[in-house]
Fold this sequence. Notes:
This protein is α/β, with parallel strands linked by helices. The protein has two domains: 3-105 and 304-320, Protein-Tyrosine Phosphatase, Chain A (Alpha-Beta Complex); 128-299, Glycogen Phosphorylase B (Rossmann fold), CATH 3.40.50.2000. Helices cover 47% and strands 15% of the residues. The protein is built from 14 helices and ten strands. The strands form two sheets. A six-stranded parallel β-sheet has the order 7-6-5-8-9-10, with helices on both faces. It has a four-stranded parallel β-sheet with strand order 1-2-3-4, sandwiched between helices. Helix 2 (10-27) packs across helix 3. The radius of gyration is 21 Å and the shape is globular.
Amino acid sequence: xxxxxxxxxxxxxxxxxxxxxxxxxxxxxxxxxxxxxxxxxxxxxxxxxxxxxxxxxxxxxxxxxxxxxxxxxxxxxxxxxxxxxxxxxxxxxxxxxxxxxxxxxxxxxxxxxxxxxxxxxxxxxxxxxxxxxxxxxxxxxxxxxxxxxxxxxxxxxxxxxxxxxxxxxxxxxxxxxxxxxxxxxxxxxxxxxxxxxxxxxxxxxxxxxxxxxxxxxxxxxxxxxxxxxxxxxxxxxxxxxxxxxxxxxxxxxxxxxxxxxxxxxxxxxxxxxxxxxxxxxxxxxxxxxxxxxxxxxxxxxxxxxxxxxxxxxxxxxxxxx
Length: 321
């Protein structure tokens, strides 16, 4: 949801927060375990803590204070008993304010044993796959889909040895399919089932992805990639005013350098995407370097066991005490 969308729905959001708080207070749990969505969940936790200080508040997926609104940490200290972190580098922000925190690792980079599916209808032996991730939100897909279609058309005019697979959500799969029907492209597929998406990705030679946590999955699959993103002018200006980091991609943020190329705003166009993808595909040493850097980065954000196991240990300790 963009900044403007939040403003338009602010009264609905406030109403949802208040109703959620009322239900929690009635239920009277020992622990309020909130997950992600800090602009909603942390407001709920704050209100619950004010009403009943005996309810322990544990939050999973820390708000990205390292990107913007660092001062939030001081406020969070007043109502969160324990923060569970996806990234090790986040600890310093919460340690500085003496907020109890534990690094539990990121669930997206854990090895999952997927059930193998026959993909012969999607994976052609005579075509190399490029995976496309147009975003999970309708607003993102609306903006990026036309750009990505033009990119594919460019690729096809230069080299027809590639097949392109869009990784969609169940909610937006039909929207993408209907949009693609208006083109004359015959080397595109759309998948939404998670197991199939995972196998398609692992069989890809490259990925073009919107900025977001999906880039961790791509890196974890050991697939080279580039990042694209385009905001509306208003949202971009607001973003520029508040953001404290130079990069959009988490791998780049951790390394404080561009490991994975980022094509944002004006650079997010079919020509630039085409040039960057072709440049990588023609230079295997660049791909090797990117994959090596990503692998080293991922090792630094993996937990001892699994993110869910580490989180469960913390919750159990609070229940015991």
